[in-house]
């Protein structure tokens, strides 16, 4: 996400009167991308695709005792939107799984350590089973620290009055803990997605279905995906991953004592043909909170996400470390995405709330795009838009636990288990499948 957001261009008056969802932050569209094909510049094969560890790491790092998993990066791993389990336009309490303390991560649970980092208690870092979790990610982070207001720590060694960079935080934490796995999700905000999503939603709301104004062909959008910009972002992600390795080395670790997991981004919306709301009228946004034209959603599937994830995979190869694994989340939410056919709002699927049997299978795992519904004393934040919600966060946690693999980390691609009859595990998470990388 970006540090500052601009107000959406005002839609027609009759739309403004009904508008209940909208504007995004950068990490929000950090997922307005979808299905992965191999983009230009991607690694020939994801790190770890051919050789997963077959035995657990055998030596402890400087810290002894129970192992730790540490997560670094942006909103897609910090837990943004992890408060909400599905959605209702009638009563927010139907979907409020974690309540108003969802993002309060200081020791006594009364405030955020870094305002608006939104490190939710449902975040994937906390895989349990005797494994400690530490979440250092921050919603809105890019590869480099931003010292503006609010402060956004990047994956670097920044140390100033505003705070520390995530690499420095990791270095200090790892020196006294037995850190065995570091998971990184970063790069989406470096592609400038707040502006991209803003453009896409504005174009949907301000053009009629018989004269669609698409966003994917706007110059302001296209320049984010030029070969030159993709190469620059890939280089910045490579540097960030190198900073992680430096932090662990400075803390006293060798590469055979810990594993770096590079995590890609999931698809948040279906292809155009998979939306359950028609393009005509404004229902797609005012009811579903997914104001995108079909062709823009298709572009996100075919171009945006593959390009972003390709840059991450390329960086994972470029960093040249022997202890790198890959967690591919591209299709982790397929069948459960925002406005996708087959799932719905609580009032649409006839369920009372998120505790109802079957809620995990029949409601969305991605949060709505919101605008005016965040005004005043609303419980919603604009920056929660288009992020994995409570079910999505727990699904990613289930994937990460399988990557941990009892201390022998492995690569894999994650998908919904038993799609259409999704079930919860004994730990309350959606059951996911981790399969070998292509």
UniProtKB/TrEMBL annotation:
BP GO annotations: lipid metabolic process
Swiss-Prot/TrEMBL keywords: Disulfide bond, Signal
Transmembrane segments: none
Record's signal peptide: 1-44
Keyword Disulfide bond in record: yes
Disulfide bond positions: 200-215
InterPro entries for this protein: SEST-like, SGNH_hydro_sf
Annotated GO MF terms: hydrolase activity, acting on ester bonds
Classification via Gene3D superfamilies: SGNH hydrolase (3.40.50.1110)
Name of the protein described by the UniProt record: GDSL-like lipase/acylhydrolase family protein
Organism lineage: Bacteria, Bacillati, Actinomycetota, Actinomycetes, Micrococcales
């Amino acid at each position: 996400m970006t540090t500052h957001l601009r107000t959406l261009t005002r839609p027609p008056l009759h739309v403004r009167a009904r508008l209940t969802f909208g504007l995004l932050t950068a990490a929000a569209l950090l997922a307005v991308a979808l299905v992965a094909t191999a983009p230009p510049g991607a690694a020939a094969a994801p790190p770890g695709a051919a050789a997963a560890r077959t035995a657990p790491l055998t030596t402890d790092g400087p810290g002894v005792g129970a192992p730790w998993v540490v997560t670094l990066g942006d909103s897609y791993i910090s837990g943004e939107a992890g408060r909400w389990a599905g959605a209702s336009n009638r009563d927010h309490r139907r979907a409020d799984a974690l309540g108003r303390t969802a993002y309060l991560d200081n020791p006594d649970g009364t405030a955020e350590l870094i305002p608006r980092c939104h490190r939710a208690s449902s975040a994937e870092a906390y895989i349990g089973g005797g494994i400690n979790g530490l979440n250092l990610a921050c919603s809105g982070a890019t590869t480099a620290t931003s010292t503006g207001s609010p402060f956004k720590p990047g994956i670097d060694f920044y140390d100033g009055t505003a705070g520390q960079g995530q690499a420095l935080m990791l270095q200090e934490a790892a020196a006294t803990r037995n850190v065995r796995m570091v998971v990184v999700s970063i790069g989406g905000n470096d592609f400038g997605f707040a502006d991209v999503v803003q453009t896409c939603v504005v174009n949907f709301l301000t053009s009629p279905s018989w004269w669609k104004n698409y966003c994917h062909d706007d110059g302001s959008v296209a320049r984010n995906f030029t070969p030159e910009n993709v190469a620059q972002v890939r280089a910045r992600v490579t540097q960030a991953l190198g900073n992680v390795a430096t932090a662990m080395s400075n803390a006293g670790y060798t590469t055979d004592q810990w594993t770096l997991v590079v995590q890609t981004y999931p698809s948040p919306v279906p292809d155009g043909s998979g939306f359950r709301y028609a393009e005509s009228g404004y229902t797609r946004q005012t009811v579903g909170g997914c104001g995108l034209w079909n062709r823009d959603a298709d572009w996100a599937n075919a171009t945006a996400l593959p390009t972003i994830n390709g840059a991450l995979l390329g960086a994972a190869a470029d960093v040249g470390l022997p202890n790198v694994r890959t967690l591919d989340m591209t299709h982790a939410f397929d069948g459960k995405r925002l406005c996708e056919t087959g799932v719905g709002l609580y009032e649409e699927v006839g369920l009372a709330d998120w505790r109802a049997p079957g809620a995990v299978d029949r409601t969305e795992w991605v949060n709505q795009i919101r605008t005016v519904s965040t005004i005043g004393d609303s419980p919603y934040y604009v920056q929660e838009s288009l992020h994995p919600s409570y079910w999505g966060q727990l699904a990613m946690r289930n994937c990460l636990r399988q990557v941990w693999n009892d201390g022998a980390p492995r690569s894999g691609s994650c998908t919904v288990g038993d799609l259409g009859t999704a079930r919860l595990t004994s730990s309350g998470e959606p059951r996911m499948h981790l399969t070998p990388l292509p």
